[in-house]
Amino acid sequence: MDILFLLIPLSVVLALLIIGALAWAVWRGQFDAIDAEGERILHSD
User: Fold this and answer.
1) Which of 2, 8, 17, 25: CA 20 to 30 A from 33?
2) Per-residue pLDDT of the chain (45 residues; tens, 9 = 90+)
3) Distance CA 15, CA 9 (A)
4) For 12-18, which contacts have Cβ atoms below 8 Å and span 24 or more sequence positions?
5) For residues 28 and 40, what is the distance between their CA atoms, to the nearest angstrom?
6) Which residues, at least 6 apart from 12, have a Cβ–Cβ distance to it below 8 Å?
7) Which positions ≥6 away from 31 have C-beta within 8 Å?
8) Distance between CA atoms of 5 and 23, rounded to whole angstroms?
């Protein structure tokens, strides 16, 4: 039972870090032009 007092806060911190990393990637424009790379490969000379 004592391990829950450690695991629950650690899982909450990990979830917040993952959400923060995803939000950072979205705000930095990481997912703006997903199709552009596929089109660039098909249309390259």
Assistant:
1) 17
2) 899 999 999 999 999 999 999 999 999 988 887 777 778 778 766
3) 10
4) none
5) 21
6) none
7) 25
8) 28
